[in-house]
Design goal:
The protein is an alpha/beta fold and 870 residues long. Helix content is 55%, strand content 15%. It contains 29 helices and 21 strands. The strands form four sheets. It has an eight-stranded mixed barrel with strand order 13-14-16-17-18-19-20-21, surrounded by five helices. Helix 15 (479-486) crosses helix 16, helix 19 (599-621) crosses helix 20 (658-668) and helix 21 runs parallel beside helix 23. The longest helix is centred in the middle third of the chain and has 44 residues, at 278-321. The radius of gyration is 56 Å and the shape is elongated. The termini are far apart. The structure holds ligand C2E and magnesium ion (2 copies).
């Protein structure tokens, strides 16, 4: 029989731990056993009519509490039979021993049954009564009666014919002994062993002790009075049990046990004194047993009920004090109970009656549906857990997490629901904050990369009909320069301002996100073609290039944008990557522009990645070489110089465009070493030409990154010293953009080179943003007109006008003008007519290998070495 954990159980101490209390318990137990035997011998009715055997009650109680007292009780039983009952002669020593072992063994068995069945010695429930009855009546008394009578038959005390009747009498005597004494023994004994005083009443602490003692005295006093006044002896004595039952009802099982035991003692003594007829005397004793048991049963039930009520009271205290809403309601929503926190949560006054139905506290149909679903689930499974919203009296909506429990009233067959709701307002706010932090960028407040990717996935996979989505990747050009020049705070302000401007451009369904650094991604769902995106991208470029005011300082940047179109079902990663590839394309083309992705771009990007992997090897093994393109005097046709151009043939891919190789080397930082080697190589070969008698200058392209390198001037010096080349025959070419920016002291570096006699050429003039007027302020000697002008020269009036103006200005500034990319005689003629000094292009020669160049110089003629530098 299962019972709740934590109820008292007799402990069985190890054999070594005989504390003083244990010893005292053992001595008192043996004494009580012998006392009960004396009582049985002298007070109860000996002989064949009815045997009342109290030692059985003592022994079962004692052996349940302390099984190890078994040998002591065996000895006590031998003494009891031999001396107290005076049967030593009849039994003889052997039977005496056997008799004691089997009888005490039977009681021991009963004690074991109590332990096995988890009997609670405080007798707090009717279950305990059932277990006690089973152990005493079925186990202890039955086994003792059968075994004891068999021994008596053996020694000749009982006739074989009389066997069953003797067993019956023995059994009844034991049962009565147990009924009267075992409850009291286990209750008092377990309290004593735990070192506690026996509580006389469940509510002892709330009662004056004097009153309690007075109440206890009522039953024995009443018994004495009834015995004395009774017509025939003991006629109305059963009435003395009324106060016992009253005591049981008022104070529970301990009071019932104590008072019925006391009354039992008084009554047996009275019956012994007043009644001569043994039969009537035994009737009285039986009556006493019945009434004792009634008292104890009432007491046990009362105590059990009181325990339950107390537990319920504690739970209801908890419910009242809990910081969550707790309520119960009928199935139709009638609220039966609402705890104080629930009132506060719903905005109901503490004492106001709750007239509204539970459903009235739900803000909308969705919440009502959810509640009904929850109730159905709770009906099926007992409980339901979920999230819902409640509406307060003031209209505010409160998000709650809710548990619904369904209770079935067994007698009425009705359903009732109770609920616990936790206010989640703060938690939701915190979650929102966390989500904001996790999904939004804190500088611009725009969605961040994570949210963008999430939304993009959804957009590309959720749309029902086939649509196209434009993904635009935008980046501020050269933000690093702003950070380096003005600090990161300014960089942030620029990004912030651009974010604000960009967000003004987006429509409702568009998504603008900060992807990282100065990168933004704009997603336009449902576009027909890329032109929608291009139109918007051009407006975005304006947002980038409009000056940003940072503390009164105007900061100007440009932006680049890459665009791709993604179809429904496309992978979001691919879409972003393609937009990024297009962005790189826009940047490579000089920035401040828009590029649209095409498959070619992707292939090139992939190639570039492969190349990047090969790059190290290229540089290590010096697989590159230099081609030289002759530059001739426009009037004489003589070769005045040769431009060194980088060449590299990839083992699998074939020749790689130098532009690409240079970009890669710039990305990986290898450009400084590579540039130094190229410069040295070109100078060495030029020295050879000079030795061969050719007066040609050597023109070397230099990357912006090389120029920024602090060791650049020193490297150039070293090469000049090592090769012995005349610096006056060396030209360094730089692109126009590098010169115009001068953010890293490039101009000073160039001035240092010039001071050694090296000349500076501005390459690709016209592609950057320097105006003609800025030419005057730059430390240059040569201007190389970009090939695009040469190409358009004969077709575009604008190109022609620009060339004319540039040439005019160059003349005024005493700069040499070189035209690049001359492919036709017509172009050459026009250029000469406009006043160009020198010509470079396929018309003259493609870039040549060193040997071919030597041959070319031989056939075309150069200046004499002493003309060099002109
Ligand atoms: P660039 O310095 O403007 O060089 C001229 C480019 O125009 C060369 O391309 C040359 O082959 C090409 N070209 C010359 N004449 C004509 C013509 O008549 N028609 C056409 N269509 N093209 C012509 P290349 O060799 O592919 O070099 C491309 C760019 O790579 C160079 O432009 C330069 O910026 C860079 N580069 C090449 N070698 C080096 C180097 O050693 N160092 C650095 N930093 N950059 C280099
Ligand atoms: Mg060049
Ligand atoms: Mg050029």
């Amino acid at each position: 029989m299962a019972r709740p954990a934590g109820t008292a159980r007799p402990s069985t101490p190890g054999s070594s731990s005989w504390s003083r209390r244990e010893v005292a318990f053992a001595v008192i137990s043996v004494a009580a056993y012998l006392g009960a035997a004396v009582w049985a011998r002298y007070v109860s009715i000996p002989g064949p009519v009815l045997v009342w055997f109290p030692p059985a009650g003592v022994a079962i109680g004692v052996l349940y509490l302390r099984p190890r007292l078994f040998p002591a009780l065996v000895v006590a039983e031998i003494f009891s039979t031999a001396v107290i009952m005076d049967l030593a002669q009849e039994f003889g020593p052997v039977a005496l021993g056997v008799n004691a072992v089997v009888i005490v063994g039977a009681y021991h068995l009963a004690g074991e049954a109590l332990r096995q069945l988890h009997f609670d010695p405080r007798l707090r429930s009717s279950d305990d009564l059932v277990i006690l009855a089973f152990a005493c009546i079925v186990v202890g008394s039955t086994v003792a009666a059968v075994a004891g009578v068999l021994v008596q038959t053996w020694v000749g005390l009982v006739d074989a014919d009389d066997l069953l009747r003797s067993i019956g009498l023995f059994w009844v005597g034991d049962v009565i002994g147990c009924a009267c004494l075992t409850p009291a023994v286990v209750m008092v004994g377990s309290a004593a062993l735990r070192g506690e005083t026996l509580p006389m009443a469940d509510d002892e602490h709330g009662l004056p002790r004097g009153l309690l003692v007075a109440e206890f005295m009522v039953a024995p006093v009443a018994a004495v009075v009834l015995m004395v006044v009774g017509d025939s002896p003991m006629q109305f004595t059963y009435l003395a049990f009324v106060p016992v039952v009253a005591l049981a009802v008022r104070h529970g099982v301990a009071a019932a046990a104590l008072s019925s035991a006391a009354l039992g003692a008084v009554l047996t003594a009275g019956a012994h004194q007043l009644i001569d007829d043994p039969l009537i005397r035994s009737d009285v004793q039986l009556l006493m047993v019945v009434l004792t048991l009634t008292g104890i049963m009432v007491g046990a039930v009362v105590s059990a009920r009181r325990d339950v009520l107390e537990a319920k009271e504690q739970i209801s205290d908890v419910v009242e004090a809990t910081p969550d809403l707790v309520a119960t309601a009928d199935r139709d929503g009638t609220v039966r109970y609402l705890n104080p926190c629930g009132r506060a949560l719903l905005g109901i006054e503490p004492d106001a009656p709750v007239t509204a139905k539970a459903f009235d506290f739900l803000p909308d149909d969705l919440a009502v549906d959810l509640m009904r679903e929850g109730m159905k689930a709770a009906e099926r499974h007992g409980s339901w857990m979920g999230e819902n919203r409640l509406r307060r009296a003031d209209g505010r909506i409160v998000p709650v997490s809710q548990v619904l429990v369904c209770h079935r009233n067994r007698s009425e067959g009705t359903l009732r629901f109770s609920t616990v709701c936790r206010d989640m307002t703060d938690q939701r706010a915190l979650e929102d904050q966390l989500r904001q932090a996790a999904l939004y960028d804190d500088v611009t407040g725009l969605p961040n990369r994570a949210l963008l990717e999430d939304q993009l996935v959804r957009l590309l996979h959720v749309a029902e009909r086939p649509t196209r989505t434009a993904v635009m990747f935008a980046d501020v050009d050269h933000l690093q320069r702003v950070n380096e020049s003005f600090g990161f705070a300014t960089g942030d302000r620029v990004v912030q301002t651009i974010a604000v401007r960009l967000s003004r451009l987006v429509r409702g369904a568009d998504l603008l996100a900060r992807y990282g650094g100065a990168q933004f991604v704009l997603v336009l769902p449902d576009v027909s073609d890329e032109f929608d995106a291009i139109l918007l991208a051009n407006r975005m470029l304006d947002s980038f290039s409009e000056a940003v005011d940072v503390d009164g300082r105007k900061v100007r940047v440009t932006g680049s944008i890459g665009i791709t179109l993604a179809e429904n079902g496309h992978d979001h990663d691919t879409a972003l990557r393609r937009a990024e590839i297009a962005l790189h394309r826009a940047k490579e083309a000089g920035g401040g522009r828009v590029a649209v992705f095409d498959q070619d771009l992707e292939a090139r990007a992939r190639q570039r990645m492969d190349l990047e992997a090969d790059l190290r090897e290229v540089l290590d093994h010096e697989r590159w070489w230099l081609a030289y393109q002759p530059i001739v005097d426009a009037t004489t046709g003589r070769v005045t110089s040769a431009e060194a151009l980088l060449r590299w043939t990839h083992p699998e891919r074939g020749p790689v465009a130098p532009y690409e190789l240079i970009r890669l080397a710039e990305h990986s930082g290898a450009i400084v070493d590579l540039g130094r080697s190229i410069f040295a190589h070109a100078c060495r070969e030029a020295v050879q030409w000079h030795r061969d008698g050719h007066g040609v200058d050597i023109t070397v392209n230099v990357s912006a990154l090389q120029l920024r390198d602090p060791g650049f001037v020193r490297d150039v010096d070293e090469v000049i010293a090592a090769t012995g080349i005349d610096p006056a025959t060396v030209v360094v070419e730089l692109t126009e953009t590098v010169l115009a920016a001068d953010e890293h002291g490039e101009i000073a570096t160039l001035a240092a080179l010039r001071s050694q006699g090296i000349r500076i050429a501005m390459d690709d003039f016209g592609t950057g943003f320097s105006s003609l007027s800025t030419l005057r302020d730059l430390p240059i000697d040569i201007v190389k007109l970009d090939r695009s002008f040469t190409t358009q020269l004969t077709t575009s009036a604008d190109a022609r006008a620009t060339v004319e103006a540039a040439v005019g200005l160059a003349h005024a500034l005493r700069l040499t003008v070189v035209a690049e990319g001359v492919e036709t005689q017509a172009q050459a003629d026009t250029l000469v007519a406009l006043g160009c000094h020198k010509i470079q292009g396929y018309l003259v020669s493609h870039p040549l290998g060193p040997d071919d160049l030597t041959a070319f110089l031989g056939s075309h003629g150069t200046r004499t070495p002493h003309d060099a530098g002109r």
